[in-house]
Amino acid sequence: MAATHPEPHNDKLTSRLNSLRAAVLGANDGIVSVAGIVVGVAGASSSKSIIFTSGVAGLTAGALSMAAGEFVSVSSQRDTERALLDKEKSELREYPKEELEELEQIYAGKGLTKKTARVVARELTAKDAFAAHIDAELNINPNDLTNPWQAAIASAISFFAGAIIPLIAIVVASVSLRVPVTFVAVILALTLTGVLSAKISGASKTRATLRVVLGGILAMAVTHAIGKIVGANV
After folding, report:
1. What is the four-CA torsion angle of 161, 165, 166, 172, rounded to 10 degrees?
2. Cβ–Cβ contacts within 10 Å for residue 54, how many?
């Protein structure tokens, strides 16, 4: 008997991949954002305390901003999903016949014959009408709604994990090597996030990595140049 392989495309795996992708993107944001701040400040000042304070401020503000944004976004999504679930319950209670016909049409639209679709719809409705409808119509699992607090904390942590890299690099390096060392550290970190992002999405590793690395280099170059200009004129 031929060996069977588990189907990889399931809701839990998709959810984990989306969470991992969000974590990588959050770390990438942290790397580029704080790198731009500390390199820009380093262009205007050689004071380690000023550079460090600016970096910590940027890291803190960025992590809190990411957490707040994710919390609001996921909370809105959760509220929408709950409203849809409540609406479906109400429709099943008030219009059971119409809802059954709607379920038949959904399965017929997926390729089943009208007769088979009717049998499937009736059997699923007899077992659990609500579960049948939210699966076929909404694709929502009411027992697995995203937690906004978990999303917010994960977003803040991923941003912090990325942001700490350029902050440490620019603080530990000597004055003359601060910017070059930070550039190298950021390029290496972005290369890693680019590869991970490509691996998760199945995209080209070279293209994805070049995109994030070049974007990071451009951001640092621009902010450093602005820092030089501002520092020379203030």
Report:
1. 140
2. 21
Distance CA 31, CA 119 (A): 55
**Tell me: the pLDDT tens digits for 75-115?**
998 999 899 899 988 988 998 889 888 888 998 988 888 88
Question: Which residues, including other chains, have CB under 8 Å from residue 178's CB and lie 6 or more apart?
Answer: 42, 51, 170
Residue 176 DSSP one-character state: G
User: What is d(CA 223, CA 86) in angstroms, rounded to the nearest whole number?
Assistant: 50
Residue 158: half-sphere exposure toward Cβ, Cα within 13 Å:
21
Q: Say yes or no to pLDDT of 229 above 70.
A: yes
Q: Which two three-digit tokens encode residue 117?
A: 């679709």
Q: Over the stretch 4-31, which tens digit does the pLDDT of each residue have?
A: 444 444 555 566 666 777 788 889 999 9
Question: DSSP string spanning 60-98?
Answer: HHHHHHHHHHHHHHHHHHHHHHHHHHHHHHHHHHH-HHH
The stretches of the chain forming alpha helices (DSSP H) are 11-44, 48-94, 96-109, 114-133, 148-172, 178-201, 205-233
